[in-house]
Write a structure and sequence with these properties.
This protein is mainly alpha-helical. Helix content is 48%, strand content 7%. Helix 2 packs antiparallel against helix 4.
Length: 110
């Protein structure tokens, strides 16, 4: 883990400044994204590789949104674990990261 931490510091990334991002999570995310130079923007990466954003599909009468079928499941899993960590609560029901917790609850109640 010390070697990974040293490598992350050399990579000039700010992932570990996010609340709830451990050394292993940051390495998992970067390890899946960095080799992929085929995306011209963050939005394209989020839609087609990480499957974070939904893709609009429409035919003559129907419109729907669904996950991309060409996603990286390991990257999606790392981001999912990060999300769960950020909206989690401690044993005494106090949110670990109140800003993220409040945002999540506003989104699901809308």
């Amino acid at each position: 883990e010390q070697i990974i931490d040293k490598t992350l510091k050399q990579s000039d990334t700010h992932l570990q400044t996010l609340p709830g991002v451990s050394t292993i999570t940051a390495a998992s995310i970067l390890g899946r994204i960095v080799p992929s130079k085929r995306f011209s923007s963050v939005d394209k990466l989020a839609v087609s590789y990480a499957s974070i954003a939904l893709v609009d599909y429409s035919s003559s009468r129907t419109e729907k949104q669904q996950r991309s079928k060409s996603d990286d499941r390991q990257l999606n899993k790392a981001i999912h674990h990060l999300d769960l960590n950020q909206i989690g609560v401690s044993r005494n029901s106090i949110p670990k990261y109140p800003v993220t917790y409040d945002y999540y609850h506003r989104k699901i109640s809308a």
